[in-house]
Amino acid sequence: MSLRSTGSVLVVFLWSLTVVLVQGDWGVTYSTQSICVLKGSTVEMSCSYTFPSGTVTSTFWFTKYVADGNPVNLSDDPDYRRRVKYRSDKKNSHTLIITDLRESDSTVYKFRVITDQTGVSYTGHLGVTLTVTGLQVEVSGTESKTLTCRTTCPLTGNPTYIWYKNGQQIDESSSPQYKDSVYSNREDSYSCSVKGHEDLNSPTMCECLFNTSCLRTVKSIISLLS
Asked: Which residue positions does the secretion signal occupy (predicted)?
C-alpha cells in the first residue's frame, strides 16, 4: 500500500486487495473494494481488464444508467463534468481521477468496456465503493476534555491528525483523539485536520458550545434577536 498526499490531493493505491470478476474471457480487476476520503480532496480509482477478441473502442467509468439501460460515462455526467479525468496505458490498466470531491460523490463506481464487435460490451460489477466525508470535532468531559476528530468512515491510508487550539497547532498524532488537560477559557476554540490536507480542516468547535452556562446565554441572545 502506498499513499501520496499533496495539498488537498489524496491519491490512494491499494493493490494488495483486488476484486476480480471474470465472465468467459472477460474480466475486470479493481484495485480496491472501498475508499474513504475527505471532502474537497482528489481520489484515484484504478482497474485493469481483459477481453476475448476484437478491438476495444471505448472504456469509461460510471455510476448511473439512462432510461434505455445504458450506463452514463462519468465525463458526460453533469454532476462530474470538469471534475473527472481518465488515465490509461497499453497494458489495459485504467484510472479514474475525481477532483474537488463532494459528499454527494459517495456511491459505487463501475468500469465499462466496449469493443468493435457489434453489441459486445462488458461491465465489471461490484465496482469500487467511494465514501466522501468531512471532519467534525466532538468533545466529552468537563475540566479535562477529550476531543475526537470524527468522520463518517475510517479514512483510507492511516492518516495523521492535527489539532488546533485558538488557531494554533497543539498536537499531531495517528489517533483521531486528543486530551486537553489544560484549563480552558470559554473563548477557546478547537479544530482538526489531516496532515497534507490542512486546508480541509474541520469547522471550529468553540468552548462556549460545550459550556452549559455559556450555551444558555447564547440561546437567550438568539431568542432576543429572533
From this structure: 1-24
pLDDT per residue over 6-46, tens digit each?
Answer: 344 444 433 333 343 444 588 899 999 999 999 999 999 99
Same domain, 147 and 98: no
CB 158 within 8 A of CB 123: no
Pair 150, 130: CB distance under 8 Å:
no
d(CA 53, CA 60): 19
User: Residue 169, Cβ neighbours under 10 Å: how many?
Assistant: 11
Q: Under the phi-then-psi rule, with left for phi > 0, alpha for psi from -120 to 50, and beta for the rest, what region is 82?
A: left
Identify the residue whose cell numbers are 441572545: 221
Please check whether residues 78 and 148 belong to one and the same domain.
no
Q: What is the pTM of this model?
A: 0.78
Choose the final residue of a domain: 133, 154, 171: 133
* Cα–Cα nearest to 53, from 117, 143, 133, 138: 117
Instruction: List the grid coordinates of 100.
Output: 474537488
Task: Report CA torsion sign: 13, 15, 21, 23.
Answer: positive
Distances (CA, A) of 116 to 63, 107, 110, 224: 23, 30, 21, 70
